[in-house]
Design goal:
Blueprint (H helix, E strand, L loop, with lengths): L1 E24 L9 E13 L5 E3 L3 E4 L5 E7 L3 E14 L4 E2 L17 H13 L12 H16 L1 E2 L10 H7 L1 E2 L1 H14 L4 E8 L1 E3 L2 E8 L2 E6 L4 E2 L4 E7 L8 E6 L4 E11 L1
Parallel strand pairs: 8-9
Antiparallel strand pairs: 1-5, 1-6, 1-16, 1-17, 2-3, 2-6, 4-5, 7-13, 10-12, 10-15, 11-17, 12-13, 13-14
Helix pairs in contact: 2-4, 3-4
């Protein structure tokens, strides 16, 4: 068992004041069998034009996938929207015992494969290398998932800025480039082609940086975490905040407001073992 401290800090700076701002967050750890939330703190605030910082009330609830969501509304004009979420979680190895709903076998608009991806699956599984025995014992599902993860990692190149939140798995596959969201969408699509239930997951990794996305696949009654961006089966050190069919179900920060301001996003995330 290991313990980790996490801190998620985000600010949106508006080029001119905005108002009537509704927001929805998924920035707090999701309780899971492998992840016990020891303590959490969430602070949401805005800065008015005069430079005055105002703390906002937060409503807590859950979405259709059981993810913790935090919502609120501020009517006053403001030029900055800030979030601080921090706390401590205790983790055992990444395993979620349960069942798999049929929706995790269905393609979405963001994970729909094309003929190139179907051929890629066939080639990968016909030419896959043996899975090292010291990784984890398992059956054919685990072997296929690991083989596809390695193949996606080898096919893709990490390249920020070449894709958007609307880029589909097939588009990213053709580009052969993208970020963790694209790696996850591609792998989910390939796993579905093999009739393996799979879903999108996101959160924070040990170290400093941005939010991260990975894949959970279902194997003999257990959901396991697989990170195609880093080509690894997850064990400890990934603070999970949400899962869903694809990234559209798991946005960490989403909002609407009145105003025509441009936005500058500042994000700082830190996770460390304690």
């Amino acid at each position: 068992m290991k313990q980790f401290f996490y801190r998620y800090e985000s600010s949106i700076i508006f080029s001119s004041p905005v108002s009537a701002h509704s927001w929805l967050l998924r920035c707090m750890p999701r309780p899971e069998p492998f992840q016990h939330v020891e303590r959490t703190l969430l602070r949401v605030s805005v800065m008015r034009e005069a430079g005055e910082a105002v703390l906002l009330p937060v409503c807590h609830g859950h979405d259709a996938f059981g993810n913790a969501v935090q919502t609120g509304y501020v009517s006053d004009a403001h030029c900055r929207f800030s979030i601080v979420s921090e706390g401590v979680v205790r983790q055992t190895p990444y395993r979620i015992c349960g069942t798999a709903h049929d929706m995790y076998l269905e393609h979405t608009a963001l994970t729909l494969p094309d003929g190139n991806m179907e051929r890629f699956v066939g080639k990968t599984l016909n030419e896959k290398e043996d899975v090292p025995e010291d990784i984890l014992p398992g059956g054919p599902v685990l072997e296929r998932a690991l083989a596809l993860c390695r193949a996606v990692h080898g096919h893709m190149t990490y390249a920020p800025g070449v894709t958007t939140v609307n880029t589909t798995a097939s588009q990213a596959f053709v580009l052969g480039r993208g970020v963790c969201q694209d790696y996850a969408h591609v792998l989910i699509s390939l796993l579905h082609l093999c009739a393996i239930p799979a879903r999108y997951a996101c959160g924070y990794l040990v170290g400093e940086g941005a939010t991260h996305a990975w894949v959970e696949f279902f194997d003999q009654g257990v959901w396991r975490g697989l990170d195609p961006t880093n080509n690894r089966l997850l064990c400890h050190g990934c603070i999970k905040v949400a899962h869903g069919r694809d990234s559209a179900d798991c946005s960490v920060n989403r909002g609407v407001f009145s105003g025509r301001a441009a936005q500058q996003n500042i994000l700082d995330i830190k996770v460390e073992e304690i």
